[in-house]
Structures
1.
Amino acid sequence: MQMLYDSDSFVVVHILPEAFEPPGGDAQQPQVPQLPRHGFEIVDKRSGKEVYLDGSWAEMFQQQILAWQRDTPTQEEVEAALDRYTGLAQNPVIVH
Protein backbone atom coordinates (compact mmCIF):
# COMPACT_ATOMS: atom_id res chain seq x y z
CA MET A 1 0.00 0.00 0.00
CA GLN A 2 1.35 3.39 -0.97
CA MET A 3 -0.15 6.78 -0.12
CA LEU A 4 -0.21 8.90 -3.25
CA TYR A 5 -2.09 11.99 -2.10
CA ASP A 6 -3.26 13.47 1.20
CA SER A 7 -5.01 16.82 1.61
CA ASP A 8 -7.70 18.32 3.80
CA SER A 9 -10.32 16.90 1.41
CA PHE A 10 -8.95 13.63 -0.02
CA VAL A 11 -6.65 10.69 0.52
CA VAL A 12 -5.57 8.46 -2.36
CA VAL A 13 -3.90 5.12 -1.67
CA HIS A 14 -2.46 2.73 -4.26
CA ILE A 15 -2.99 -0.87 -3.16
CA LEU A 16 -0.60 -3.43 -4.61
CA PRO A 17 -1.41 -7.09 -3.82
CA GLU A 18 1.13 -9.80 -3.24
CA ALA A 19 2.17 -11.48 -6.49
CA PHE A 20 2.24 -14.95 -4.90
CA GLU A 21 -0.20 -17.03 -2.89
CA PRO A 22 0.83 -17.59 0.70
CA PRO A 23 2.42 -20.99 1.22
CA GLY A 24 -0.10 -23.76 1.87
CA GLY A 25 0.06 -26.64 4.30
CA ASP A 26 2.46 -28.61 2.09
CA ALA A 27 5.98 -27.19 2.36
CA GLN A 28 6.95 -29.07 -0.82
CA GLN A 29 4.55 -27.07 -3.00
CA PRO A 30 6.08 -23.97 -4.59
CA GLN A 31 4.26 -20.67 -4.40
CA VAL A 32 1.89 -20.16 -7.32
CA PRO A 33 2.09 -16.81 -9.15
CA GLN A 34 -1.22 -14.98 -9.30
CA LEU A 35 -2.38 -12.40 -11.80
CA PRO A 36 -1.35 -9.20 -10.05
CA ARG A 37 -4.24 -6.78 -9.60
CA HIS A 38 -3.92 -3.39 -8.13
CA GLY A 39 -6.41 -0.79 -7.11
CA PHE A 40 -6.85 2.69 -5.75
CA GLU A 41 -8.78 3.78 -2.71
CA ILE A 42 -10.06 7.35 -2.78
CA VAL A 43 -11.33 8.69 0.53
CA ASP A 44 -13.48 11.81 0.53
CA LYS A 45 -12.75 13.25 3.97
CA ARG A 46 -15.60 15.74 3.62
CA SER A 47 -18.29 13.07 3.39
CA GLY A 48 -16.48 10.31 5.27
CA LYS A 49 -16.93 7.90 2.34
CA GLU A 50 -14.53 5.95 0.17
CA VAL A 51 -14.47 4.26 -3.20
CA TYR A 52 -12.18 1.45 -4.30
CA LEU A 53 -11.22 1.42 -7.98
CA ASP A 54 -10.01 -1.80 -9.57
CA GLY A 55 -10.04 -3.37 -12.98
CA SER A 56 -10.71 -0.95 -15.82
CA TRP A 57 -11.50 1.87 -13.35
CA ALA A 58 -8.04 1.44 -11.82
CA GLU A 59 -6.43 1.43 -15.25
CA MET A 60 -8.16 4.69 -16.17
CA PHE A 61 -7.15 6.25 -12.86
CA GLN A 62 -3.54 5.07 -13.42
CA GLN A 63 -3.58 6.97 -16.72
CA GLN A 64 -4.73 10.08 -14.83
CA ILE A 65 -1.84 9.69 -12.37
CA LEU A 66 0.66 9.34 -15.22
CA ALA A 67 -0.74 12.52 -16.77
CA TRP A 68 -0.35 14.32 -13.43
CA GLN A 69 3.28 13.18 -13.26
CA ARG A 70 3.92 14.62 -16.73
CA ASP A 71 1.99 17.88 -16.36
CA THR A 72 2.36 18.72 -12.62
CA PRO A 73 -1.18 20.01 -11.99
CA THR A 74 -2.16 22.45 -9.27
CA GLN A 75 -3.80 21.16 -6.10
CA GLU A 76 -7.09 22.62 -7.33
CA GLU A 77 -6.86 20.61 -10.56
CA VAL A 78 -6.10 17.39 -8.66
CA GLU A 79 -8.96 18.00 -6.23
CA ALA A 80 -11.37 18.74 -9.09
CA ALA A 81 -10.42 15.44 -10.75
CA LEU A 82 -10.80 13.51 -7.48
CA ASP A 83 -14.13 15.22 -6.84
CA ARG A 84 -15.49 13.57 -9.99
CA TYR A 85 -15.10 10.18 -8.27
CA THR A 86 -17.06 11.17 -5.14
CA GLY A 87 -20.34 10.14 -6.76
CA LEU A 88 -19.04 6.57 -6.74
CA ALA A 89 -18.16 6.70 -3.03
CA GLN A 90 -20.83 4.73 -1.19
CA ASN A 91 -18.84 3.01 1.56
CA PRO A 92 -18.51 4.84 4.85
CA VAL A 93 -15.01 5.01 6.26
CA ILE A 94 -14.86 3.02 9.50
CA VAL A 95 -11.87 3.32 11.78
CA HIS A 96 -11.07 0.22 13.81
2.
Amino acid sequence: MKAAITIQPGPPEVIQLQEKPQPTAKEGWVVIRVKAFGLNRSEMFTRQGHSPGVNFPIIQGIECVGEIEEDLSGVYTSGQKVAVCMGGMGRNYDGSYAEFVCVPADIVIPFSSELPWPVLGAIPEMFQTVSGSLHEALDVKAGETLLIRGGSSSIGMLAGQLAAYLGVTVISTTRNADKQQTLLENGAAHVLLDDGNIREAVRKLYPAGVDKVLELVGITTLKDSLKCIKPKGTVCMTGILGGSWTMNEFTPMGDIPSLGKLTVYMGEASNLGKEQLQDFIDAIAKGAIVLNIDKTFRLDQLVEAHQYMESNQATGKLVVVL
Protein backbone atom coordinates (compact mmCIF):
# COMPACT_ATOMS: atom_id res chain seq x y z
CA MET A 1 0.00 0.00 0.00
CA LYS A 2 0.97 3.65 -0.27
CA ALA A 3 1.55 5.42 3.03
CA ALA A 4 2.70 8.92 4.00
CA ILE A 5 5.35 8.24 6.63
CA THR A 6 6.72 10.87 9.00
CA ILE A 7 10.38 9.89 9.02
CA GLN A 8 11.49 12.06 11.93
CA PRO A 9 10.40 15.20 13.78
CA GLY A 10 10.70 18.33 11.69
CA PRO A 11 9.09 20.52 9.02
CA PRO A 12 6.39 19.23 6.63
CA GLU A 13 9.05 17.83 4.30
CA VAL A 14 9.81 14.99 6.75
CA ILE A 15 6.57 13.34 5.49
CA GLN A 16 7.45 10.94 2.67
CA LEU A 17 5.16 8.87 0.45
CA GLN A 18 6.40 5.27 0.47
CA GLU A 19 5.32 1.72 -0.27
CA LYS A 20 4.64 -0.39 2.80
CA PRO A 21 3.07 -3.84 3.37
CA GLN A 22 -0.69 -3.68 3.84
CA PRO A 23 -1.64 -4.44 7.47
CA THR A 24 -3.52 -7.63 8.30
CA ALA A 25 -6.26 -8.09 10.88
CA LYS A 26 -5.57 -9.66 14.26
CA GLU A 27 -7.71 -10.56 17.24
CA GLY A 28 -9.51 -7.44 18.48
CA TRP A 29 -8.31 -5.33 15.55
CA VAL A 30 -9.83 -4.64 12.13
CA VAL A 31 -8.39 -3.41 8.85
CA ILE A 32 -10.06 -0.44 7.17
CA ARG A 33 -9.67 0.71 3.59
CA VAL A 34 -9.21 4.45 4.09
CA LYS A 35 -11.41 6.68 1.94
CA ALA A 36 -10.80 10.08 3.55
CA PHE A 37 -9.45 11.70 6.68
CA GLY A 38 -9.33 15.14 8.22
CA LEU A 39 -6.14 16.91 9.17
CA ASN A 40 -5.66 18.03 12.77
CA ARG A 41 -3.31 20.49 14.38
CA SER A 42 -2.35 17.86 16.93
CA GLU A 43 -0.82 15.96 13.99
CA MET A 44 1.20 19.06 13.14
CA PHE A 45 2.50 19.19 16.72
CA THR A 46 3.33 15.47 16.60
CA ARG A 47 5.20 15.95 13.34
CA GLN A 48 7.12 18.82 14.93
CA GLY A 49 8.18 16.50 17.76
CA HIS A 50 6.02 17.91 20.56
CA SER A 51 3.98 14.76 21.35
CA PRO A 52 5.59 12.71 24.12
CA GLY A 53 5.95 8.98 23.62
CA VAL A 54 5.77 9.02 19.80
CA ASN A 55 8.44 6.96 18.09
CA PHE A 56 9.56 7.81 14.54
CA PRO A 57 9.21 6.84 11.76
CA ILE A 58 5.42 6.58 12.03
CA ILE A 59 2.32 6.83 9.85
CA GLN A 60 0.40 9.69 11.42
CA GLY A 61 -3.35 10.32 11.30
CA ILE A 62 -5.73 10.26 14.26
CA GLU A 63 -8.99 9.82 12.32
CA CYS A 64 -10.52 8.49 9.12
CA VAL A 65 -13.62 7.19 7.41
CA GLY A 66 -13.61 4.19 5.13
CA GLU A 67 -14.81 0.67 4.54
CA ILE A 68 -14.12 -2.53 6.42
CA GLU A 69 -11.48 -4.56 4.61
CA GLU A 70 -10.97 -7.36 7.15
CA ASP A 71 -12.56 -8.26 10.50
CA LEU A 72 -11.73 -11.70 11.89
CA SER A 73 -14.56 -11.50 14.44
CA GLY A 74 -17.25 -11.13 11.80
CA VAL A 75 -18.89 -8.25 13.65
CA TYR A 76 -18.38 -6.01 10.63
CA THR A 77 -18.92 -7.01 7.03
CA SER A 78 -16.56 -6.31 4.17
CA GLY A 79 -17.33 -2.92 2.62
CA GLN A 80 -19.28 -1.62 5.63
CA LYS A 81 -18.83 2.13 6.17
CA VAL A 82 -17.12 3.08 9.43
CA ALA A 83 -15.47 6.00 11.18
CA VAL A 84 -12.58 5.91 13.64
CA CYS A 85 -10.74 8.51 15.69
CA MET A 86 -8.25 8.74 18.53
CA GLY A 87 -7.55 5.54 20.48
CA GLY A 88 -3.80 6.07 20.06
CA MET A 89 -3.85 5.85 16.27
CA GLY A 90 -1.16 7.86 14.57
CA ARG A 91 0.76 8.14 17.82
CA ASN A 92 1.00 4.78 19.60
CA TYR A 93 0.65 2.82 16.36
CA ASP A 94 0.40 3.61 12.64
CA GLY A 95 -2.55 5.81 11.73
CA SER A 96 -4.65 6.85 8.77
CA TYR A 97 -2.15 8.58 6.44
CA ALA A 98 -2.28 5.45 4.27
CA GLU A 99 -4.49 3.40 1.96
CA PHE A 100 -5.21 0.92 4.79
CA VAL A 101 -5.12 1.17 8.57
CA CYS A 102 -5.43 -1.47 11.30
CA VAL A 103 -7.20 -0.23 14.44
CA PRO A 104 -8.68 -1.64 17.66
CA ALA A 105 -12.25 -2.78 17.07
CA ASP A 106 -13.51 -0.83 20.08
CA ILE A 107 -12.85 2.54 18.42
CA VAL A 108 -14.73 1.64 15.23
CA ILE A 109 -18.13 3.32 14.73
CA PRO A 110 -20.37 2.11 11.89
CA PHE A 111 -22.65 4.49 10.02
CA SER A 112 -24.88 4.69 6.97
CA SER A 113 -24.70 7.59 4.54
CA GLU A 114 -24.64 8.53 0.89
CA LEU A 115 -22.73 11.74 1.57
CA PRO A 116 -19.52 12.06 -0.45
CA TRP A 117 -16.29 10.89 1.19
CA PRO A 118 -14.74 14.39 1.42
CA VAL A 119 -17.68 15.48 3.60
CA LEU A 120 -17.63 12.31 5.70
CA GLY A 121 -13.87 12.62 6.12
CA ALA A 122 -14.28 15.99 7.84
CA ILE A 123 -16.56 14.62 10.54
CA PRO A 124 -15.12 12.14 13.10
CA GLU A 125 -12.57 14.08 15.14
CA MET A 126 -14.20 17.46 14.62
CA PHE A 127 -17.61 16.26 15.78
CA GLN A 128 -16.17 14.23 18.66
CA THR A 129 -14.29 17.29 19.90
CA VAL A 130 -17.20 19.71 19.54
CA SER A 131 -19.85 17.41 20.95
CA GLY A 132 -17.68 16.39 23.89
CA SER A 133 -16.67 19.96 24.69
CA LEU A 134 -20.20 21.35 24.58
CA HIS A 135 -22.04 18.49 26.25
CA GLU A 136 -19.57 16.56 28.42
CA ALA A 137 -17.28 19.38 29.56
CA LEU A 138 -19.40 22.54 29.42
CA ASP A 139 -22.90 21.03 29.72
CA VAL A 140 -24.35 23.93 27.71
CA LYS A 141 -28.06 24.68 28.06
CA ALA A 142 -30.54 26.70 26.01
CA GLY A 143 -30.61 30.33 27.11
CA GLU A 144 -26.96 30.42 28.17
CA THR A 145 -24.17 32.54 26.69
CA LEU A 146 -21.09 30.88 25.19
CA LEU A 147 -17.85 32.59 24.23
CA ILE A 148 -15.85 30.67 21.61
CA ARG A 149 -12.22 31.74 21.66
CA GLY A 150 -10.77 30.87 18.26
CA GLY A 151 -14.12 30.86 16.52
CA SER A 152 -12.84 30.82 12.94
CA SER A 153 -11.19 27.41 13.33
CA SER A 154 -13.07 24.40 11.98
CA ILE A 155 -13.86 23.34 15.55
CA GLY A 156 -14.97 26.86 16.45
CA MET A 157 -17.32 27.21 13.51
CA LEU A 158 -18.97 23.85 14.08
CA ALA A 159 -19.27 24.61 17.81
CA GLY A 160 -20.98 27.88 16.92
CA GLN A 161 -23.52 26.11 14.73
CA LEU A 162 -24.27 23.36 17.24
CA ALA A 163 -24.52 25.75 20.20
CA ALA A 164 -26.87 28.08 18.31
CA TYR A 165 -28.91 25.03 17.25
CA LEU A 166 -29.27 24.21 20.97
CA GLY A 167 -30.57 27.71 21.78
CA VAL A 168 -27.31 29.13 23.15
CA THR A 169 -26.24 32.72 22.42
CA VAL A 170 -22.79 32.55 20.85
CA ILE A 171 -20.00 35.13 20.94
CA SER A 172 -17.15 34.12 18.62
CA THR A 173 -13.70 35.64 18.34
CA THR A 174 -11.28 35.95 15.44
CA ARG A 175 -8.04 37.80 14.81
CA ASN A 176 -9.02 38.37 11.19
CA ALA A 177 -11.62 41.05 10.45
CA ASP A 178 -12.33 39.40 7.09
CA LYS A 179 -13.76 36.36 8.89
CA GLN A 180 -16.47 38.19 10.84
CA GLN A 181 -19.25 37.46 8.34
CA THR A 182 -18.23 33.80 8.22
CA LEU A 183 -18.67 33.53 11.99
CA LEU A 184 -22.07 35.20 11.83
CA GLU A 185 -23.06 32.59 9.27
CA ASN A 186 -21.88 29.87 11.63
CA GLY A 187 -24.05 30.58 14.63
CA ALA A 188 -22.46 33.65 16.20
CA ALA A 189 -24.76 36.37 17.49
CA HIS A 190 -21.73 38.58 18.20
CA VAL A 191 -18.21 38.60 16.75
CA LEU A 192 -15.24 40.14 18.56
CA LEU A 193 -11.82 40.88 17.09
CA ASP A 194 -9.33 39.16 19.37
CA ASP A 195 -6.12 40.94 20.31
CA GLY A 196 -5.55 38.66 23.29
CA ASN A 197 -7.48 40.86 25.71
CA ILE A 198 -11.23 40.86 25.14
CA ARG A 199 -12.53 40.98 28.72
CA GLU A 200 -13.75 44.56 28.40
CA ALA A 201 -15.45 43.89 25.06
CA VAL A 202 -17.22 40.87 26.52
CA ARG A 203 -18.30 42.81 29.62
CA LYS A 204 -19.77 45.55 27.42
CA LEU A 205 -22.04 42.93 25.88
CA TYR A 206 -22.67 41.02 29.12
CA PRO A 207 -21.68 43.06 32.20
CA ALA A 208 -22.01 40.07 34.52
CA GLY A 209 -19.95 37.87 32.22
CA VAL A 210 -20.80 34.84 30.08
CA ASP A 211 -21.94 31.44 31.29
CA LYS A 212 -19.41 29.31 29.42
CA VAL A 213 -16.20 29.70 27.42
CA LEU A 214 -14.85 27.25 24.87
CA GLU A 215 -11.14 28.05 24.81
CA LEU A 216 -9.58 26.89 21.53
CA VAL A 217 -6.59 29.25 21.39
CA GLY A 218 -5.08 27.80 24.56
CA ILE A 219 -2.89 29.09 27.31
CA THR A 220 -1.98 32.31 25.51
CA THR A 221 -5.53 33.60 26.09
CA LEU A 222 -6.66 31.35 28.96
CA LYS A 223 -6.22 33.90 31.74
CA ASP A 224 -8.20 36.48 29.77
CA SER A 225 -10.96 33.95 29.09
CA LEU A 226 -11.25 33.25 32.80
CA LYS A 227 -11.95 36.97 33.32
CA CYS A 228 -14.93 36.74 30.98
CA ILE A 229 -17.11 34.31 32.97
CA LYS A 230 -19.81 35.14 35.47
CA PRO A 231 -19.76 33.62 38.98
CA LYS A 232 -20.08 29.81 38.67
CA GLY A 233 -19.23 30.08 34.98
CA THR A 234 -17.02 27.50 33.29
CA VAL A 235 -14.05 27.68 30.95
CA CYS A 236 -13.16 24.57 28.98
CA MET A 237 -9.75 24.46 27.31
CA THR A 238 -10.02 22.17 24.31
CA GLY A 239 -7.56 23.59 21.77
CA ILE A 240 -4.05 24.96 21.51
CA LEU A 241 -4.28 27.06 18.36
CA GLY A 242 -1.79 29.40 19.99
CA GLY A 243 0.82 26.65 19.72
CA SER A 244 1.96 26.63 23.37
CA TRP A 245 1.46 23.71 25.74
CA THR A 246 2.83 25.05 29.03
CA MET A 247 2.07 28.19 30.98
CA ASN A 248 5.04 29.80 32.69
CA GLU A 249 3.03 31.42 35.48
CA PHE A 250 -0.41 30.46 36.76
CA THR A 251 -1.85 31.37 40.14
CA PRO A 252 -5.06 29.37 40.71
CA MET A 253 -6.37 31.61 43.49
CA GLY A 254 -5.72 34.70 41.40
CA ASP A 255 -6.27 33.63 37.83
CA ILE A 256 -9.42 31.56 38.40
CA PRO A 257 -12.20 33.90 39.58
CA SER A 258 -14.05 33.05 42.77
CA LEU A 259 -16.63 30.31 42.09
CA GLY A 260 -15.34 29.99 38.53
CA LYS A 261 -14.60 26.59 37.03
CA LEU A 262 -11.76 25.53 34.73
CA THR A 263 -11.74 22.20 32.93
CA VAL A 264 -10.22 20.60 29.84
CA TYR A 265 -11.57 18.28 27.18
CA MET A 266 -9.25 15.63 25.75
CA GLY A 267 -11.83 13.32 24.22
CA GLU A 268 -11.56 9.77 23.00
CA ALA A 269 -13.61 7.65 20.63
CA SER A 270 -15.58 6.41 23.65
CA ASN A 271 -17.08 9.91 23.96
CA LEU A 272 -18.70 9.54 20.55
CA GLY A 273 -21.63 7.11 20.33
CA LYS A 274 -22.99 5.38 17.24
CA GLU A 275 -26.36 7.14 17.54
CA GLN A 276 -24.75 10.56 18.06
CA LEU A 277 -22.61 10.17 14.96
CA GLN A 278 -25.50 8.92 12.82
CA ASP A 279 -27.78 11.76 13.97
CA PHE A 280 -25.07 14.28 13.11
CA ILE A 281 -24.47 12.77 9.67
CA ASP A 282 -28.21 12.79 9.02
CA ALA A 283 -28.40 16.47 10.08
CA ILE A 284 -25.72 17.31 7.51
CA ALA A 285 -27.57 15.35 4.83
CA LYS A 286 -30.74 17.34 5.61
CA GLY A 287 -28.90 20.66 5.50
CA ALA A 288 -29.48 21.45 9.18
CA ILE A 289 -25.70 21.56 9.74
CA VAL A 290 -23.22 22.84 7.15
CA LEU A 291 -19.64 21.63 7.37
CA ASN A 292 -16.94 24.13 6.49
CA ILE A 293 -14.36 22.34 4.35
CA ASP A 294 -11.63 24.71 3.28
CA LYS A 295 -9.61 22.48 0.97
CA THR A 296 -9.10 18.85 -0.03
CA PHE A 297 -5.82 17.12 -0.82
CA ARG A 298 -4.59 13.77 -2.13
CA LEU A 299 -2.38 11.38 -0.15
CA ASP A 300 0.64 12.43 -2.22
CA GLN A 301 0.00 16.06 -1.26
CA LEU A 302 0.42 15.67 2.50
CA VAL A 303 3.56 17.82 2.62
CA GLU A 304 1.62 20.61 0.90
CA ALA A 305 -1.35 19.98 3.21
CA HIS A 306 0.79 20.30 6.35
CA GLN A 307 2.42 23.46 4.95
CA TYR A 308 -1.03 24.94 4.40
CA MET A 309 -2.23 23.90 7.88
CA GLU A 310 0.87 25.42 9.48
CA SER A 311 0.35 28.71 7.60
CA ASN A 312 -2.98 29.27 9.40
CA GLN A 313 -4.69 30.26 6.15
CA ALA A 314 -7.55 27.77 6.38
CA THR A 315 -11.12 28.73 7.19
CA GLY A 316 -12.58 25.31 7.78
CA LYS A 317 -11.50 21.69 7.82
CA LEU A 318 -8.73 20.29 5.66
CA VAL A 319 -9.49 16.84 4.24
CA VAL A 320 -7.38 14.25 2.44
CA VAL A 321 -9.27 12.04 0.00
CA LEU A 322 -7.93 8.75 -1.31
